[in-house]
Write a structure and sequence with these properties.
The protein is 7% helix and 59% strand. The protein is mainly β and 193 residues long. The protein has one domain. Strand 4 and strand 5 form a beta hairpin.
């Protein structure tokens, strides 16, 4: 199964002006640690759907916008494990707000973006790490979606001496909703019994 996607990119000079449902694609690089040693960097294609609010001027006098990740599907095959590693939002859990904040007065960019989510991690069809609280941060953001790296701040566990070290997200871009839904459905089918 191929997990590549076509992407739509658009340059931006300021934060998106209106509330919007953003469909985003990126690549996650997850360092796999087996018994304390990095054995592989697993590459996942990540699909995020985010409900973005309109930008506002915050109490510090800089612009920001909030967003909530409403859907997340990511999948990548591990050669070392011989199986798929997947990420999805935890069901029946209210998702926390995320935020993007300008780093200075008078201009939206560069900005800092902070992604918050509660996710489930699967190894094959097995739920390996339920309700993992993820925090990812990107600095010097120049457009939305960010084109620079976003770093996950915590490692997570797959069980049996298997851990994923703090990861990095890169090559973010917008996707057409129909393509996003098609790829997300492919990823969901990987963990169905």
């Amino acid at each position: 199964m191929s997990i590549t996607t076509d992407v739509v990119q658009r340059p931006m000079e300021s934060f998106p002006p209106e509330p919007e449902l953003e469909h985003e694609r990126s690549e996650l690089s997850l360092p796999l640690v087996v018994d304390g040693e990095v054995k592989e960097t697993i590459r996942l294609v990540s699909l995020l759907k985010m409900a973005r609010s309109a930008p506002v001027l915050n109490a510090a006098g800089v612009r920001q916008f909030e967003f909530i990740i409403t859907e997340w599907e990511a999948a990548g095959f591990s050669e070392v494990l011989g199986d798929w590693v997947q990420i999805t939002l935890s069901p029946d859990v209210p998702q926390p707000k995320s935020v993007c904040v300008a780093q200075q007065h008078g201009a939206d960019y560069p900005a800092i973006i902070v992604y918050n989510a509660i996710m489930d991690v699967y190894l094959g069809k097995r739920l390996a790490d339920p309700r993992y609280v993820v925090l990812a941060v990107g600095v010097d953001v120049q457009q939305i979606p960010p084109r620079n790296h976003v770093h996950f701040q915590k490692a997570f566990n797959l069980g049996d001496g298997l851990d994923i070290m703090a990861a990095v997200c890169s090559t973010m871009s917008s996707m057409e909703p129909e393509e996003w839904e098609r790829k997300a459905d492919e990823f969901r089918k990987l963990r169905q019994l």
